[in-house]
Amino acid sequence: MVASAYMSILTAKVAGVPRVIGCTPPINGSAYPATIASMHLAGADEIYVLGGVQAIAAMAIGTETIDRVDMICGPGNAYVAEAKRQLFGEVGIDLVAGPTEVLVIADDTVDAEMIATDLLGQAEHGPTSPAVLITTSERLGNETIAECERQLEKLKTADVAGPAWRDYGQVYVVDTAEDAVELADELAFEHVEVLTSDPEYFLEHLSNYGALFLGEETNVAYGDKAIGTNHILPTRGAARFTGGLWVGKFLKTVTYQRATREGSLVVGERVSRICEVERFWGHKEQTDLRLRRWSAS
Question: Kindly report the CA angle at 263 between 257 and 265, in degrees rounded to 5?
């Protein structure tokens, strides 16, 4: 996708990664100009028309013409996700993602047309993409179900969105906003839209989501394409423990130590006792050697 190209490559360039390569599969046997342009404008140092598991392997292991990389990021199908998972450790990865998910939290201040449009707009990503509504209005829930069926009759991607809605679409009716928060945090979806009279309540109380979209004025498509946040996000409940791709994913934390002799003696006395308790005699001797040499000086 065009958006994935700049969201992954540009993020790495902003982080200061010195070499960033981009891989994109051919379309009808040739390079897709829009994606190539997106990669180039985002700052890719090398671009390869190569996709799928082959691209992941080439980047992680290297070939005669492609030097290996240290980290792989970006979306892909189930095979790409599995390849990334298996290669984690050989290289770093952003996260194992997919299929995409959308959750809408709504009350009776919004209409079914908007909810159905936003649910199906994400369901078109794939036939296994969950599209879920949590609402405090049973009437709105029923109207949304009917509206989804109506829209699928004319949606150009109904062949994909239809099965996703049929097999993975769900509507939950809850009593209160507090119940909606509890359920949404349990689901921990990738995309969460809040279409209620008080979106700020959910901003303050929700904890588990990849990206949050507050109010009717925004939607997941904005986040997917151009609003400024990244669309490479956690799925399958991973929002409980991680966020999406950002500059920090390309930065690593390293530490160093340097002590004076006086400081080494202070730390050494404590380390020696810890090592004795743990029965790490080689560690203890590293410390005791310095204590013997410098404690009398």
Answer: 115
Question: CA nearest 193: which of 103, 121, 112, 253?
Answer: 103
191 is catalytic: yes
The one catalytic residue among 101, 147, 190, 193: 190
Exposure class string for 124-158: b at 16+ Cβ within 10 A, else e: bbbbbbbbbbbbbbeebbebbbebbeebbeebeeb
| Dihedral angle computed from the Cα positions of residues 267, 273, 279 and 285, in that order, rounded to the nearest 10 degrees | 50
DSSP string computed for 30-65: B--HHHHHHHHHHT-SEEEE--HHHHHHHHHH--SS
Tell me the per-residue pLDDT of 245-278, one tens digit each, with 9 for 90 and over.
999 999 999 999 999 999 999 999 999 999 999 9
From the list 191, 231, 276, 285, the catalytic residue is 191
